[in-house]
Known about the structure:
With 213 residues, the protein is mostly helical. It has helices spanning 11-32, 37-40, 54-57, 65-115, 131-144, 161-178, 189-212; strands at 149-150, 159-160. The protein has a two-stranded antiparallel sheet with strand order 1-2. β1 (149-150) and β2 form a beta hairpin.
Amino acid sequence: MNTQTRHPLRPDMRTLYILIALNVLVFLMQQSGTLPTEAGALWYPQNEAYAPYQWLSHMFLHADLAHLLLNMYAVGMFGRYVLQVWGEKRFLLLYFLGGLGAAALYLLWVYVKLQTGGSNALAYVHVIGASGAAFAILAAFSTLFPDAPLSLMFVPVAFKAKHFVLGLVAYEAFAEISGVSLFGSNIAHVAHIGGALTGWLLAWWWQRGRQRR
């Protein structure tokens, strides 16, 4: 009889792994056709395809494998450090509020554009992905570890996290306004900005609370 005990996963890391596993599982269901993307995607509220549950479900859907891998890489790489500082509950709040903040800013942006003469086609566009949550985590990481060196893949130049993330958000704003995107079309740049703003706001609030104590 083997009496050696196995060390359980740390609860906070288990939370991170479960989130990533859920995203992968949902993606596999999308690919197999058992979960129609259109049903879980977040539509504009005036669209007949809209349903309230989509505010949550859209965060676990992805357009393709590259979309999934990039988001899960960001969640896993930076989320583990955020977990070490704030624990499971705040990490989950950051993840889901980041996704909700991203969706809210995106739909507000669509509303403003429709009210100011934008194409009615905007009301028939849906949004999917964990990018808002990933940007919230990245923004929170840059607040907790502002001087940590970060760089883009295959780019040998590193920047401090606080400058890197700020530059990334500035790019997202430029891409949305100019229509010039380095990573292809059909990207909800405003949603990325919404996720980052939510992450910065939560990080500021929680850090402020720690300093008061």
